[in-house]
Predict the structure.
Amino acid sequence: MYLDSLPGLPVPYQCTKEGRTTGNYIDEIILLKEGARVVFLANDVKCQYRNGQMGTVLSCYPDHVLVQVDGKEINVYQHEFIHYEYKVKSNTLLRDEVAS
């Protein structure tokens, strides 16, 4: 495993799921270490990172991870994915949040 080649102990981060989640597209627990290469799977609303961009973990904290991205250090906090179901009723598109 890639993390085994890095010094130090891994830090676990627990996923929180609510509602009717579908599939196994999000790991229940991820393990990170300083020096680990990571890839972002979402866009940041503050435009600090984008989907598919890579970075390097600099430090692991209980509530966030410090990652170097394109030469900049950014604090990455838990990201909320929201799963919606859509339906049309009376020619109006309705959106229902079913999981996060």
